[in-house]
Amino acid sequence: MGFIAMIVAVATIGGFMFGYDSGVINGTQKGLEAAFDLGKLGLGINVGAILIGSSIGAFIAGRLADRIGRRSVMMLAAVLFLISALLAGAAGSSVVFILARIMGGLGVGAASVISPVYISEVTPAAIRGRLSSVQQVMIITGLTGAFVANYALARFAGGSTADFWFGFSAWRWMFWLQAIPAAIYLVALFFIPESPRFLVSKGRDEDARGVLTRLLGSNEADRKVTEIRGSLAADHHKPKLSDLIDKTTGKIRPILWAGIGLAVFQQLVGINVVFYYGATLWEAVGFSENDALMTNILSGVLSIGACLAAMAMVDKVGRKPLLLIGSAGMTVTLATVAWAFSTAVTGADGAVTLPGHNGVIALIAANLYTISFNMSWGPIMWVMLGEMFPNQIRGSGLAVAGFAQWIANAAISVSFPTLAKSPGLALTYTGYAVFAAISFFFVQKMVKETRGRELEAMEG
């Protein structure tokens, strides 16, 4: 277990980087607007640039991992994180900043799909859900780390646009600090093995047996190599994208539709509006910049707690029940947030406020929403994408589902700045509540439980 814990810890640093790179933008938007003279549309493009890279990275990574290995793709992602952090902080124009964020997005997309599949391929079935859920804990830890760093830098500098160390604005340091965990991630990856399932797919059975012996013991290693070899030999060829088509019916495999649905609904409930625009969101309804940044930290801490609760339950309760509970919880809390925002009033000075106790109601409901998400759809979607596809199509299935996930993310996130006014906020959150309700029925009909099943037993 010590060896398994070590390699899971290293692999999930990718999740931390995913979260940090996604969350760091939250406190930098005033700086971007001032430095690059951005309007609302321009801000949306600069914030959403990471999503262009993420969708491409997710699609390429799944297929690339079948060719060069899971660990090699994670190393490539670490390099992209490092370069992106340095370049984004130094950007002298919107164009350079967008290019830097696209590079970071390539790393985020790759890490988002490869870390979960790597973890699922090196962990025993009985504890696979628990250990795969660490990915979401690390994503939220990365987000919270970015929120804390942004808050501290803005606080000590006197604002996100104020000059700080060496005369550079605080918002630039928010990006540069990301280079530290990126470098740690890159170095740590040299100390973990390649996925044994990838090694078998490349005919390197002895190397796979060596890794599995360290993971499961020698007797179990021999049996597992034979089992993996058998699951790959069923279609008599190396994994490829066309495997996603059922050769009997000529239609897309149902398991792929289930994966795409899980990936897309996770975004259509609006969670990344909280991740990317939390500060802007709360300022739009009357919070100060300082209070808005503090609210981000509170949401992050609660989210970590919710992920830990999911880790404790996922291998006992199962994946599907948690998804259903989460969908129901998000529907109610998102509808409450929408109602609270619909009561916003604009004063004579143009300031927007929520009357009476509605601001407190909105804050409580929003945090209950993040708890609902992070004890269900947050970690469970990644757990299921990492384990639900058969060995033969795991890389290809992840490529398509990951691409769909980031396209949905982009659609929600890029459109939000133009809606970040009181009437628009109420309508937007109503839409998220509707998608949360639909996701409940989608899970009931399309999603099959995977708890306790060996990866070689997955069918599609």
Write the CATH homologous superfamily of the largest domain.
MFS general substrate transporter like domains
Shape descriptor reads globular
What structural category arises from helix and sheet content? mainly alpha
Rg is: 22 Å
CATH topology of the largest domain: Growth Hormone, Chain: A
Bin the helical content: over 70%
**What's the tally of helices?**
21
Mind telling me which CATH architecture of the largest domain this is?
Up-down Bundle
Regions with little confidence, pLDDT below 50 for 5+ residues: none
CATH class of the largest domain: Mainly Alpha
Count of β-strands: 2
Q: What proportion of the residues form beta strands (DSSP E)? A: under 5%
Query: What's the N-to-C terminus distance?
Result: 30 Å
Strand order of the largest sheet: 1-2
- What's the order of the H and E elements? HHHHHHHHHHHHHHHHHEEHHHH
Count of the domains: 2
Main beta sheet, described? Answer: 2 strands, antiparallel
Architecture overview:
GO terms for molecular function: transmembrane transporter activity. Keywords: Cell membrane, Membrane, Sugar transport, Transmembrane, Transmembrane helix, Transport. It is found in: Cell membrane. By secondary structure, the protein is mostly helical. It has 2 domains: 1-192, MFS general substrate transporter like domains (Growth Hormone, Chain: A), CATH 1.20.1250.20; 243-459, MFS general substrate transporter like domains (Growth Hormone, Chain: A). Helices cover 75% and strands 1% of the residues. The protein has 21 helices and 2 strands. It has helices at 2-11, 13-23, 29-36, 40-68, 70-90, 94-122, 128-132, 134-157, 170-176, 179-188, 196-201, 205-216, 218-233, 254-268, 271-284, 289-313, 319-342, 358-374, 377-387, 394-419, 422-446, and strands spanning 345-346, 352-353. A two-stranded antiparallel sheet has the order 1-2. Helix 17 runs antiparallel to helix 19 (377-387). The radius of gyration is 22 Å and the shape is globular. The protein starts with a helix and ends in a 14-residue tail after the last helix.
